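Next comes this protein:
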Amino acid sequence: MDVLSGRILLRPIDLDRSLAFYRDVLGLAIAREFGTGIHRGTVFFLGGGFLEVSGTAAEAGPGCADLRLWLQVRDLVATHKELLGRGATVLREPRREEWGLDEMWIADPDGVRICVVQVPDRHPIRYRPGI
């Protein structure tokens, strides 16, 4: 399989509420918007990928409880302050995890858990042998 691109598809319970969260609270940049009425959506830039928020779900489906987003940021302390100021629901304050990453957890309006991560300078994720 030769994958050229990928994206996460998210079907929220309330499309407008979720679009506002990802656009205004998280501040994700818009890659494109499409459609009209219930057949509309927005594709957000998500680092090296995309997050498409479109359509609606009748209710939180069984997969929603297991879905997690992982967003890497440059400065977790500044991001924490910024998200608090925008009204984000912080589930867990920033802290250094035993695996060495600085993480905090937030939730979108439907309860989708989002891990916001800063990778410290000397963490193994930053090390590439032979490069």
